[in-house]
């Protein structure tokens, strides 16, 4: 029996790293959560090991907290800390049971044997003989159940020995729109059957492969996941399904809940604290064996996973923005490996990395037999204005159209016509965007907002120009076509009702940012439009091509399901850009081949490990100095390069292109060590550091 626990106290300080030794409380093990005295603080801590010996004088934990983590998640947390140059404490914090809620306990009433007898007697004798009122008889009949508002009446029956009342946990179940809607399970197409067979064949082996389900839009990938999930449950194994942001893809949850019912737990930020806690507990106890959720659901406390699915694996939301900057796709792969589960990443527009690393299974056709819509590139070079006349004509003809413009708000920026002043965010080096309906100009980076200016504070002119058009303006302009126009972007709080209204409408236009291109399945969209295909292409970023190809292909994929003659128009000032040209030809193989060649030539992922270190500071010059110091410790790294000021902080970055494979870990450690050294130096006390491994 080992008497000592090693723990990681959960603090955010980068410098502080455990493990620290404490006396082992009874019944604790790896994964137990404790409250420990730590210096002058009391901290939550996770037990990461139990040992026999310690060189220190040991303190005793203050108490054992409820809900332990499973041991495999503790391993995962420690791996996460190393893989993403973070600390064990920060990584383990991501895995904790949801905070801010406890089990909900309510009073539960059930009949005693006397109560049962009374019910039977009542049938013969009638209620009055037993001195029960009609209401009391009915109450007794309805047991067992939670007491609720009838507690008073039940207490009187309890006093007569007919009822027993005691506390009992009561689940707070999330409301699903799909409850009770059991959609019929369609027979699989031959392609789907082949894909399913490939998944199940490798799932049954000792070391299942990692698969990429590369299926064109509308090829029925979800049905393949559902069948694979059913087979996995039959084998007694659990299923984890990761999806992009939940609010935008309610259909996925609906399908899983519709097919598997209560064994599905959902984990996402829109749940109340109590619901989230209860879902976590159901997963932890094994009461729920399927979990559907976004990025953070990759940490669901599940036992004996047999299948891990990453749907729409190209989606940017799988990368965490906070520290550790983990990539849920890599974590999913790690979890699948830990459990001997098969990993299935699915997409119509997979990332070059996935094509390179995973075994590909294809769904080359749409399930409904429809062909891909014809894509026409509209050259914007000689046509000023947001909507080209050709596009306008097509919109007039279309019955149901989706229009993508990746800029929200009314106009992009404001200038003074007299002195040229540009309205900028006081915290960030970016222009403020006009949101007319909110009567505000706002920063899309920090959320700063101010009233729409009436006069220029520099020169007093009242002539202020609005430049460019965003989704809000477009919504307004397209209303002239005499059809309902619906808008979907980050300013719209609830996507569900908008999507539902569009689905129901006989004729309508859906306008929005890239969320309109996500995996929505509308049967009768006859026109798709990308208004500014160059917007993503212009980003100074090695993923610009990949993102543009995905956006155009995904938007095109929403059109023409189940009906012939659908069209897609892509407006661009760069008609020969490969990402746009390949997307217009529905040629993902051609695109991927070219993109992988380019990445190899430039040593970008998957041919290198990209590590980005960003130094920031509120004090002038400190970020650049810190980045220079880091650069000096990382021979061959690029930078330091200034980034635009964000939230009042100057920023400077250093980028390291490390090797892949066995050398990757050393490169991460080298970057981590450089950051630790520099952050410990008093000269850079005013700087903050972020390390992004596999930077996007
Ligand atoms: N075998 C089948 N027979 C008939 N209908 C099917 C079959 N499989 C799937 N479907 C239906 O086809 C539609 C498209 O399927 P699904 O949304 O899964 O496609 P997808 O491959 O995920 O597309 P995307 O990549 O665009 O999200 C859905 O309405 C689904 O119910
Ligand atoms: Zn700002």
From TrEMBL:
<dbReference type="InterPro" id="IPR014001">
    <property type="entry name" value="Helicase_ATP-bd"/>
</dbReference>
<feature type="binding site">
    <location>
        <position position="459"/>
    </location>
    <ligand>
        <name>Zn(2+) 1</name>
    </ligand>
</feature>
<dbReference type="InterPro" id="IPR011545">
    <property type="entry name" value="DEAD/DEAH_box_helicase_dom"/>
</dbReference>
<comment type="subunit">
    <text>Component of the replication restart primosome.</text>
</comment>
<dbReference type="GO" id="GO:0006270">
    <property type="term" value="P:DNA replication initiation"/>
</dbReference>
<dbReference type="Pfam" id="PF00270">
    <property type="entry name" value="DEAD"/>
</dbReference>
<keyword id="KW-0862">Zinc</keyword>
<keyword id="KW-0547">Nucleotide-binding</keyword>
<keyword id="KW-0378">Hydrolase</keyword>
<dbReference type="GO" id="GO:0005524">
    <property type="term" value="F:ATP binding"/>
</dbReference>
<dbReference type="GO" id="GO:0006302">
    <property type="term" value="P:double-strand break repair"/>
</dbReference>
<feature type="binding site">
    <location>
        <position position="419"/>
    </location>
    <ligand>
        <name>Zn(2+) 1</name>
    </ligand>
</feature>
<keyword id="KW-0347">Helicase</keyword>
<feature type="region of interest" description="Disordered">
    <location>
        <begin position="168"/>
        <end position="188"/>
    </location>
</feature>
<comment type="function">
    <text>Initiates the restart of stalled replication forks, which reloads the replicative helicase on sites other than the origin of replication. Recognizes and binds to abandoned replication forks and remodels them to uncover a helicase loading site. Promotes assembly of the primosome at these replication forks.</text>
</comment>
<dbReference type="Pfam" id="PF17764">
    <property type="entry name" value="PriA_3primeBD"/>
</dbReference>
<protein>
    <recommendedName>
        <fullName>Replication restart protein PriA</fullName>
        <ecNumber>5.6.2.4</ecNumber>
    </recommendedName>
</protein>
<dbReference type="GO" id="GO:0006310">
    <property type="term" value="P:DNA recombination"/>
</dbReference>
<dbReference type="InterPro" id="IPR041222">
    <property type="entry name" value="PriA_3primeBD"/>
</dbReference>
<dbReference type="Pfam" id="PF18074">
    <property type="entry name" value="PriA_C"/>
</dbReference>
<feature type="domain" description="Helicase ATP-binding">
    <location>
        <begin position="202"/>
        <end position="368"/>
    </location>
</feature>
<dbReference type="GO" id="GO:0016887">
    <property type="term" value="F:ATP hydrolysis activity"/>
</dbReference>
<keyword id="KW-0639">Primosome</keyword>
<keyword id="KW-0479">Metal-binding</keyword>
<feature type="binding site">
    <location>
        <position position="425"/>
    </location>
    <ligand>
        <name>Zn(2+) 2</name>
    </ligand>
</feature>
<dbReference type="GO" id="GO:0003677">
    <property type="term" value="F:DNA binding"/>
</dbReference>
<feature type="binding site">
    <location>
        <position position="428"/>
    </location>
    <ligand>
        <name>Zn(2+) 2</name>
    </ligand>
</feature>
<dbReference type="InterPro" id="IPR005259">
    <property type="entry name" value="PriA"/>
</dbReference>
<keyword id="KW-0067">ATP-binding</keyword>
<keyword id="KW-0235">DNA replication</keyword>
<keyword id="KW-0238">DNA-binding</keyword>
<dbReference type="InterPro" id="IPR041236">
    <property type="entry name" value="PriA_C"/>
</dbReference>
<dbReference type="GO" id="GO:0006269">
    <property type="term" value="P:DNA replication, synthesis of primer"/>
</dbReference>
<keyword id="KW-0413">Isomerase</keyword>
<dbReference type="InterPro" id="IPR001650">
    <property type="entry name" value="Helicase_C-like"/>
</dbReference>
<feature type="binding site">
    <location>
        <position position="443"/>
    </location>
    <ligand>
        <name>Zn(2+) 2</name>
    </ligand>
</feature>
<dbReference type="Pfam" id="PF18319">
    <property type="entry name" value="Zn_ribbon_PriA"/>
</dbReference>
<comment type="similarity">
    <text>Belongs to the helicase family. PriA subfamily.</text>
</comment>
<feature type="binding site">
    <location>
        <position position="456"/>
    </location>
    <ligand>
        <name>Zn(2+) 1</name>
    </ligand>
</feature>
<dbReference type="InterPro" id="IPR040498">
    <property type="entry name" value="PriA_CRR"/>
</dbReference>
<dbReference type="Pfam" id="PF00271">
    <property type="entry name" value="Helicase_C"/>
</dbReference>
<dbReference type="GO" id="GO:0043138">
    <property type="term" value="F:3'-5' DNA helicase activity"/>
</dbReference>
